[in-house]
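Student: Hello, beginner here. Can you help me understand the protein record under this note? Any guidance would be welcome.
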Amino acid sequence: MGDTTIDRGVKRGLAAVCAAAALSVSTPALAQTAAGTTIVNIARLTASSPSTALDSNAVALTIGAIVDAAIVADRASQPLTAQNEVGFTIRNPGNAADRFTVEAVAGERGPAIAVDVDGDGQIDDTERRAASVRPVVALPPGGERRILVLVGDVPVPLAVTATVTAARGHGAPGTALEDDAVIGASGAQATATTRLTDTTDAARFDKTQAVRAPDGSTRAVPGAVITYTLVAQFVRDVRNARIADMIPAGTAYVPGSITIDSRPATDPVDGDAAQLDAGTVRVALGDVPAAATRTITFQAIIQ
């Protein structure tokens, strides 16, 4: 027996899978095996006496598509201006190319959205002129594009929310779609918000989160650890500044995870500025001068 018992077509398929795997390793953005990839496996049995070399039959499967969507705001808040252009980045976290619809709401408005069509990270005048209220953006797996919501002049502070939705469909994670596609963890729809604020505010206060699952991915699954980062940038002198952040429902605080300006802080009431008080992280910043920035982080685990 030996290699002559293996169908040459299977060998070619195996070679193609290896090539695809090599490509995924060399392209960090592709965290998942690409949809349509065929995975082939053949086992070999050998024995010294009698001399034996026997290949099993080949088993194969084709990877289906995971349909997902993600969006991140450039900033959690920004001051009001005459133009009020608000930036976001949309991303395809799935394992197959897809098209995504983008919409935005600013108060009662549905503002136009300009897309970085050429992918250079900038929105030029041509891309601004092509702005529409519901652009459709094609993205490869792992691909991303910057967008700019053209809010224009507004008289009062308001929230600008952008929503990205996969064209194949959206809904509960795990829902089956056509062509063996499955909706991913985001529900194939995601939103992000930037608040336009009055520049008379004493500080700008932004919050971000980063997720690390047990398998090393960024999926929000039980056992995943969320790192919350709070950044307070002070515009003018303030007295007795305090921060309070309640641990969200569905998660549990990770003991000893608070840091203040990259320095560890303890959970009990003691000599440092932080404490965990009945499920709320509290930090007493005290008097803070203008132009100072204070950064607090802590972690929670998804239950």
Summary: The first strand starts at residue 38 and ends at 41. The chain has three domains: 3-62, 66-199, 202-303.
